[in-house]
């Protein structure tokens, strides 16, 4: 009994903490949109469009902006529900589609982040390769963005048709759902979710830090040889670019990977299992916490670039003192 009471106390404290953190979500969502709009405007300036990495980072900023819309909408929806507005069908319809948008662009962000690390690793490892000399060029970013869209296309299409919204006429002011799972997805929902989260979230999340680790190793190998061939300032700029990617990887991994684990565990739970309700409470609390943390992390991308990139700072100066 004492053990159960102790565990319940820990669970209650954890839920209260995650709920308190999640209560700040609207401020974080709005801040992320504003900051990433500024980030995008800087990365797309003429002086910054000279490399594929900057343009891929700009596309990540767009994905980060779009991923906040669902959270902002949910806050608006909660307010409308409290005011007892009679259009539940429309609320649920847009909520479903915006949640699909959020999960889709988060997948884009994951793969695009991996692309940034991959480009940098290949450029450093094979600096004299004629086949890879075009990787830093701006048009390369279009190939990577297109590849990401096609790689994630099956899960994107499946996610869009996961719900079939049905209008049930005017409903009373109560928490009734105006949509339901498509019968096909209700049958294979757990399987499809597992496949999606493993191949579109877990695996990229593991590849992202792994490729960054390889990037750091390759940088160390290349540093000594570059000291003999190039100026100290050029080496410093190269090191800063690599560190920039490393820090972006860390901020991404700390939230996105736990979210992938949460979705994977959630898809494996069944109503018949012991402690199903308790597990759901924990998973929901962790989901809220890491979702808000992921949005918070997107706010730091601009400042990391500002600290680590001389080119980025010059672009900011050009905007401020134009």
From TrEMBL:
GO molecular function, one term: G protein-coupled peptide receptor activity
Keyword Amino-acid biosynthesis found: no
Compartment(s) where it occurs, according to its Swiss-Prot or TrEMBL record: Membrane
Gene3D superfamilies in the cross-refs: Rhodopsin 7-helix transmembrane proteins (1.20.1070.10)
Keyword Aminoacyl-tRNA synthetase tagged: no
Keyword set, alphabetical order: Membrane, Transmembrane, Transmembrane helix
Pfam annotation, one family: 7TM_GPCR_Srw
Main location class: membrane
The G-protein coupled receptors family 1 profile domain, residue ranges: 35-305
Transmembrane segments: 20-43, 140-161, 195-217, 244-265, 285-307
Source species, domain of life: Eukaryota
Protein name, as recorded: Protein CBG10442
Organism: Caenorhabditis briggsae
Any single Gene Ontology cellular-component annotation: membrane
Entries under InterPro entries matching the protein: 7TM_GPCR_serpentine_rcpt_Srw (IPR019427), GPCR_Rhodpsn_7TM (IPR017452)
């Amino acid at each position: 009994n004492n053990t159960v009471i102790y565990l319940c106390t820990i669970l209650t404290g954890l839920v209260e903490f995650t709920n308190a953190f999640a209560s700040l979500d609207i401020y974080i969502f709005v801040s992320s949109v504003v900051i990433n709009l500024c980030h995008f405007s800087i990365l797309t300036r003429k002086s910054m469009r000279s490399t594929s990495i900057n343009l891929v980072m700009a596309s990540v900023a767009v994905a980060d902006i779009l991923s906040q819309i669902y959270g902002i909408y949910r806050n608006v929806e909660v307010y409308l529900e409290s005011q007892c507005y009679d259009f539940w069908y429309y609320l649920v319809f847009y909520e479903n589609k915006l949640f699909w948008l959020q999960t889709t662009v988060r997948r884009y962000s994951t793969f695009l982040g991996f692309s940034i690390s991959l480009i940098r690793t290949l450029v450093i490892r094979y600096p004299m390769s004629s086949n890879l000399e075009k990787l830093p060029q701006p048009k390369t970013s279009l190939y990577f963005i297109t590849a990401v869209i096609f790689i994630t296309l099956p899960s994107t299409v499946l996610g869009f048709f996961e719900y079939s919204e049905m209008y049930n006429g005017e409903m009373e002011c109560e928490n009734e759902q105006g949509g339901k799972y498509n019968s096909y997805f209700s049958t294979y929902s757990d399987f499809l979710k597992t496949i999606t989260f493993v191949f579109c979230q877990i695996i990229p999340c593991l590849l992202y830090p792994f490729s960054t680790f390889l990037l750091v190793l390759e940088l160390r190998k290349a540093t000594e040889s570059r000291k003999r061939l190039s100026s100290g300032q050029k080496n410093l700029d190269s090191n800063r670019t690599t560190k920039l990617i490393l820090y972006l990887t860390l901020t991404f991994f700390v939230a996105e990977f736990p979210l992938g684990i949460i979705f994977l565990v959630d898809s494996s739970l069944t109503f018949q299992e012991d402690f199903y309700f308790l597990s759901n409470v924990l998973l929901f609390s962790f989901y809220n916490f890491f979702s808000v943390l992921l949005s918070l992390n997107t706010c730091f991308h601009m400042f990391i670039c500002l600290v680590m990139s001389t080119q980025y700072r010059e672009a900011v100066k050009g905007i401020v003192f134009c």
